[in-house]
């Protein structure tokens, strides 16, 4: 006899972006993941029903999590992180973003109007054209560290790119003081961020030295911690040196292997000279205009992953090579670059001089100086000596005058007509 065979309706009955399930004598359609039926039913057989793309990014909360960017696609979506954040590989199955452990472009001098104009490509005055060119060239290095989160950051390329910025001495000399300090801050932060980004790469070398014309970097990754008690790491760049104790490494807030680096900038001291020194916290600053000051070292920079912001229990020791031999009448000052003071100024807080010879000066600092440490030397002039003697003499005279008035008022045994006259003369 005759037999009836099931007709497979799935060959042509379901719309695009749908899956068809054949059943004996019938069928039903379901939309593919990322799509929803236009009639709102989970499964359907009616003709004219369409599977529409679901915009997962419009749903709340965002499937990508905080600090992220959700991009909808046909039947799916993709996630990325906003500036200053990167995908968290150690997170849960869901996508998440974590903050990049260094500064990016939006974090460096964010309130500087001239720098902001350079970034947006707005029309600038001709005299600011060179400044914008160097700022944007430096920011491109910083962008490589912040945006190429999956690519290895090359310290050699960083050093060569920034060395080309530093060597344009004739251009730097034409900048205003505010432009010079702003560009210097961007250069210093770019070196720091690029170095920290290089430490994030698991395949990074344990130790490497990078040399460019105006920049030298020595970096070291400490994977196994301190193997010996009182162990000290020495990092050298050009003629300068940084010593960091193992106890400081152990204080690091770094979640993985700790990376440390030491950077020495050649020629940068000619731009950031003694005219940027400002330190109202020390008595020496009160007589700054009476001192002959000069920059007498290269600018250096200490870097460490997971650095504590409130200082270390033990000091970091920097040994800086003097550009000119120290004279007997000169006194070195260890200074650091403070971006919070007028866009960038040299300050002596946080460091003290341990030792000073003709060729080198040793500074002891309570933290890794994030930007730079330099030395300024001053000659005590005759004008300053007279200034100091006269003010000390005035203070002593006033103290003696107060004592004389107190004596005439309080000692009854010596009161007479003469002391009465002396008292009024003192008061006058």
Overview of the structural elements:
It contains nine helices and 22 strands. The protein has 428 residues and is of the alpha+beta class. It folds into four domains: 9-54, Laminin, CATH 2.10.25.10; 58-99, Laminin, CATH 2.10.25; 105-380, Chondroitinase Ac, Chain A, domain 3 (Sandwich); 392-427. The protein has a five-stranded antiparallel beta sheet. The chain has a four-stranded antiparallel beta sheet with strand order 10-11-14-16, with helices on one face. Strands 15-22-18-19 form a four-stranded antiparallel beta sheet, with no helix packed on it. Helix 1 packs across helix 2 (129-147) and helix 2 packs antiparallel against helix 3. Residues 281-290 and 378-382 have low confidence and may be disordered. It comes from Neovison vison. Disulfide bonds join 10-20.
Shape: elongated
The radius of gyration over CA amounts to 34 Å
Mean of residue pLDDT values: 79
Poorly predicted ranges = 281-290, 378-382
Give the strand tally. 22
The biggest beta sheet is recorded as:
5 strands, antiparallel
User: The CATH topology of the largest domain is what?
Assistant: Chondroitinase Ac, Chain A, domain 3
Give the proportion of residues in helices.
25-40%
Strand line-up of the largest beta sheet: 12-13-17-21-20
CATH architecture of the largest domain: Sandwich
What is the number of independent domains? 4
Q: What is the rounded distance between the termini?
A: 141 Å
Set out the fold topology:
Layout: E1 18-23, E2 26-31, E3 35-37, E4 43-44, E5 51-53, E6 68-73, E7 76-81, E8 85-87, E9 97-99, H1 113-120, H2 129-147, H3 155-166, H4 169-172, H5 177-199, E10 207-211, E11 215-222, E12 232-237, E13 240-245, H6 246-250, E14 258-265, H7 283-286, E15 292-295, E16 299-304, E17 316-321, E18 330-338, E19 345-347, E20 351-356, E21 360-365, E22 373-379, H8 382-410, H9 417-427
Antiparallel strand pairs: 1-2, 2-4, 3-5, 6-7, 8-9, 10-11, 11-14, 12-13, 13-17, 14-16, 15-22, 17-21, 18-19, 18-22, 20-21
Helix pairs in contact: 1-2, 2-3, 2-5, 3-5, 8-9
């Amino acid at each position: 006899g005759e037999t009836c065979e099931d007709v497979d309706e799935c060959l042509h009955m379901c719309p695009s972006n749908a899956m068809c399930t054949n059943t004996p004598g019938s069928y039903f359609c379901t939309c593919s993941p990322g799509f929803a039926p236009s009639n709102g039913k989970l499964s359907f057989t009616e003709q004219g029903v369409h599977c529409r793309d679901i915009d997962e990014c419009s749903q709340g909360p965002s499937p990508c999590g905080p600090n992220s960017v959700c991009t909808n696609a046909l039947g799916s979506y993709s996630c990325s992180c906003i500036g200053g954040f990167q995908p968290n590989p150690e997170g849960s199955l869901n996508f998440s973003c974590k903050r990049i452990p260094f500064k990016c472009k939006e974090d460096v001098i964010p309130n500087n109007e001239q720098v902001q104009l350079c970034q947006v490509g707005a029309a600038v005055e001709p005299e600011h054209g060179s400044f914008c060119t160097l700022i944007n060239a430096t920011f491109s290095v910083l962008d490589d560290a912040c945006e190429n989160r999956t690519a290895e950051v090359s310290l050699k390329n960083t050093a060569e790119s920034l060395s080309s910025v530093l060597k344009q001495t004739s251009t730097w000399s034409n900048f205003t003081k505010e432009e010079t300090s702003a560009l210097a801050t961007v250069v210093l932060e770019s070196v720091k961020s690029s170095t920290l980004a290089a430490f994030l790469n698991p395949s990074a070398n344990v130790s490497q030295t990078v040399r460019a014309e105006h920049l030298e970097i020595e970096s070291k990754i400490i994977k196994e911690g301190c193997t010996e008690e009182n162990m000290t790491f020495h990092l050298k760049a050009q003629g300068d040196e940084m010593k960091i104790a193992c106890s400081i490494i152990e204080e690091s807030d770094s979640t993985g292997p700790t990376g440390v680096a030491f950077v020495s900038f050649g020629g940068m001291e000619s731009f950031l000279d003694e005219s940027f020194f400002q330190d109202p916290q020390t008595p020496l600053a009160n007589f700054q205009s009476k001192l002959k000051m000069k920059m007498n070292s290269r600018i250096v920079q200490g870097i460490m992953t997971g650095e504590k912001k409130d200082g270390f229990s033990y000091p970091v020791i920097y040994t800086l090579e003097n550009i000119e031999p120290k004279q007997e009448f000169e006194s070195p000052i260890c200074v650091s670059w403070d971006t919070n003071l007028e866009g960038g100024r040299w300050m002596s807080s946080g460091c003290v001089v341990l030792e000073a010879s003709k060729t080198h000066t040793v500074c002891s600092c309570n933290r890794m100086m994030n930007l730079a440490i330099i030395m300024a030397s001053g000659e005590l002039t005759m004008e300053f000596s007279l200034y100091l003697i006269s003010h000390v003499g005035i203070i002593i005279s006033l103290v003696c005058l107060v004592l004389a008035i107190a004596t005439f008022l309080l000692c009854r045994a010596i009161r007479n007509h003469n002391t009465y006259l002396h008292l009024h003369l003192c008061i006058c």
